[in-house]
Amino acid sequence: MKALRLMKWKSEAEIVELPKPTPAPGQLVIKIGGAGACHLDLDLMKDFGDGQLSPLPAMAWKPPFTLGHENAGWIDLIGAGVSRFREGDPVAVYGSWGCGKCGKCKAGFETYCDNPAKAPVPGGGGGLGLDGGMAEYMLVPFERLLLDLPDGLKPIDAAPLTDAALTPYHAIKRSWAKLTPDAFIVIIGVGGLGHMAVQIAKVTTGATIIAIDSRNEALELATSLGANYTFKVGDEIKSKVKDLTSGHGAEVVLDFVGNKQTMALGASICRTLGDFTIVGIAGEVLPFSFFSVPYKTSLQTTYWGSRVELAEVLDLAAHHLISSKISKFKLADAPQVYLDLAAGKIEGRAVIVP
Ligand code: NAD
Ligand code: ZN
């Protein structure tokens, strides 16, 4: 089978020929129905490496591996002892693979596994250290990592939800208590994750939504998905947000870029007692001191989300409350898709259908 593989750090991924995986006892192979192209894959190609300088850590895993950590498809091969699935069942893959036994993993938060050394790959999963879904077939090491798709949700539509919706859902859910109808939420970066964040904020909170991006198309998309206000980078955003919020700033700011400029902006438009959450992995640094954010503002990062939250996200989509705006591409197009993603030419999420 063909697969898009990262062969070494600091290189573009390549399409190579690989044998179709076979499942050992307890494992499954799924036929991929869609694999989302995440900006994190670009970071893996460009920024990550061994002995990385701070703030990007040296990973406990390394290439070669097949890319694609946003995956959904159909059960194809079933290893001995697996009882819950039948061939052809449509499933989504929960992407962060922990030990499965610690308290965090049992609660579904495999992202924050307490025993990463006992996970299939420490701190990673399919597409992050092990082979992911940018291939015709993908090996999934444990059945708990597969979620049945609710009726009406197709694998191609579910694939990007496993990260591009799950990650903002987790970040927004963490701040739900602050997102009352009189509150404001700012979403910086309306790409694959950010365009889902706008919808999730819309359907799960009463807050007024402000979206910020450097591209007009992204801001138009944000408006069409329910953002109340949109601002383009360079628009004197700080004073405009202060005007809208009676001088206070927003209760919650989510930064889906994470570079110096966006983090400085986020810190300047968040209010006292607010939440400023950095989700983007541009790998730059925000200086932090007593005065760098308003009093009692929580500065936090979030990583992906839990298995339970993924079930909630799939349900929101099955009820037509959220949907990823996707463009569909063949596996052979994947290298070009990443060039387009880097150039800001992808609207919403690109999904590879091998
Ligand atoms: P994307 O490329 O689809 O979207 C990024 C958006 O940000 C684009 O619309 C772009 O125009 C906009 N943008 C870029 N620079 C900007 C700036 N200076 N100011 C305002 N807007 C700007 O990327 P994505 O796939 O949505 O991923 C977003 C980020 O989230 C990436 O850094 C990715 O690595 C990271 N990520 C984090 C997690 C996590 O668990 N924390 C999970 C997945 C992805
Ligand atoms: Zn664990």
Account of the protein in words:
This protein is of the alpha/beta class and 354 residues long. It has ten helices and 18 strands. Strands 3, 5, 6, 9, 10, 17 and 18 form a seven-stranded mixed β-sheet that branches. Helix 4 crosses helix 5. The chain is globular, with a radius of gyration of 20 Å. It starts with a strand and ends with a strand. The mean pLDDT is 96. It binds nicotinamide-adenine-dinucleotide and zinc ion. Zinc ion binds next to helix 2.
Q: How do the SSEs run, as a string of H and E?
A: EEEHEEEHEEEEHHEHEHEHEHEEHEHE
The portion of residues forming beta strands comes to 15-25%
CATH class of the largest domain: Alpha Beta
- Which ligands are bound? nicotinamide-adenine-dinucleotide, zinc ion
- Overall pLDDT score: 96
N-C termini distance? 10 Å
Briefly note the structural class of the backbone. Answer: alpha/beta
How many domains? The number is: 2
